[in-house]
Predict the structure.
Amino acid sequence: MHAYVHEWSCQLIYNPRLREGLGLTDGEGVERLWSQLQKLIGITRSVHHQRQIWMLDRQVHSIGLDHRESLGSWIKRRLAKGVESQSINVRQALKDCGKPMEVLHAQWADQQKVQLSV
């Protein structure tokens, strides 16, 4: 991702940890995709390159349709499991720091302003 390999100002602007509404995953999604594509290794080994691409396309399309059907329940599970429990932890950490949210927001805005002006 752009934020991790570029200069500090890009990290302040584009880092998913610092953008409202964005978050990080555990990276297991890619592992699950490769696991689902693994069965094509033997089948596609001896076929023409264009046929390999077509078979991969069809398999990925099928996986996408399956995932789309279960997207609602997946979102519901993620919200219940991750977002809500993390929100509780974050609120507690902010409460424990002893600073009002307005002060923390102002300090963060000041820090970004100074660091982006360099």
